[in-house]
Write a structure and sequence with these properties.
Length: about 325
């Protein structure tokens, strides 16, 4: 039995996982996604990392992610065992299906609109029906804040504002990796139409707890039945993803009460029980302003890259290498 990492060369994920293996003196073989079809994985244990998308066009990125899901499913019958199996990664990659499954099991999540919404006019109608005038709009399959919009309208004053991490340029929807605010109704409509055309979820915009003037949420890396790492993601705007150059903060700085920490861990445990095939996941959690009630924003079955860890102790990847070396991956 050998250990294989499938991913992309010259990325921090690959470099630091292999570095963790080297530090532990445990051999790990590597295959790029472009060559994995030529590798015999029968009888091996495998960790799957996501590919690196070189495009900034969200329409193209959406197509690449669908191709990636097909590639994942193509690995399901290779006779190997996985840290996280392809089917499990796909189950949580679909934001709508993942959140619906969590809600069915009573796990507290950020509430989604149930209807499929395809353009800005349909979104306005749905917000009126739900009497919800502040929402997040997110492409179903993208991650890292790609294409995310926070949108608020005030029907009484006929005013609206949007925060977006994308822009329309020459017929392309460009992922900017920076957040900007606009009150231009025409620009907002065009952006909403484009993002919603990708297939998107619409979620109620919950006020988040704040620390020293910045709102925040949490990324929890949960693996092997416990919280392996937590980081606070802070922002002066509504979108806290670290891909947008937002500030990361040690969770200890918040001085959260023990009961709040216990609730966070309880929500993570409940969520992972819905997807028992996953040994690891990155779980994004907000704490509601005032009540501090935790709600799951989303789950990423490959959300274990934490710069605050790899540049320090690299504990997350070391623990994964030990787990795989012990042959504890899920059965074939």
């Amino acid at each position: 039995m050998g250990i294989w990492l499938v991913g992309k060369r010259q990325t921090k994920r690959t470099d630091y996982f292999l570095k963790a293996a080297e530090q532990l003196h445990i051999p790990v073989s590597f295959a790029d996604w472009n060559e994995v079809d030529q590798v015999d994985l029968a009888g091996e244990v495998v960790k799957l990392d996501p590919p690196s998308y070189q495009t900034t066009d969200l329409f193209e990125m959406n197509d690449r992610i669908r191709e990636y899901m097909d590639a994942l499913r193509g690995l399901e019958n290779r006779g190997c065992r996985f840290l996280n199996p392809p089917g499990g990664i796909c189950r949580v990659l679909d934001k709508r299906a993942c959140k619906e499954e969590l809600a069915r099991h009573g796990v507290p999540v950020t509430e989604m609109f149930s209807e499929q919404i395809g353009n800005a006019a349909e979104l306005s109608d749905a917000m009126e029906r739900h009497r919800c005038y502040a929402v997040f709009v997110k492409p179903v399959f993208c991650s890292g804040a790609a294409g995310v919009m926070a949108y608020r309208m005030n029907p009484g004053r006929e005013r609206e504002a949007a925060y977006a991490s994308c822009r329309l340029e020459g017929g392309e929807l460009i992922n900017t990796k920076t957040l900007y605010r606009t009150e231009d109704s025409g620009e907002i409509r065009r952006l909403l139409d484009a993002v919603l055309s990708l297939g998107a979820v619409v979620e109620r915009w919950y006020p988040k707890s704040a620390f020293r003037g910045k709102s925040y949420d949490l990324r929890v890396v949960w693996q092997f039945g416990k919280a392996a790492f937590m980081v606070v993601r802070q922002s002066r705007g509504p979108v806290t993803n670290l891909h947008l150059n937002n500030a990361a903060l040690e969770v200890e700085r918040l001085s959260l009460p023990e009961n709040t920490l216990s609730e966070i861990k309880g929500v993570c445990l409940a969520a992972m029980s819905v997807f028992p095939e996953l040994a690891m996941a990155g779980i994004d959690i907000l704490l509601e302003k005032g009540s501090m009630r935790p709600r799951i924003i989303e789950i990423n079955g490959q959300g274990d890259l934490m710069y605050q860890d790899i540049f320090c102790e690299n504990r997350i990847y070391q623990e994964q290498v030990r787990y795989l070396a012990a042959g504890k991956a899920l059965p074939e």
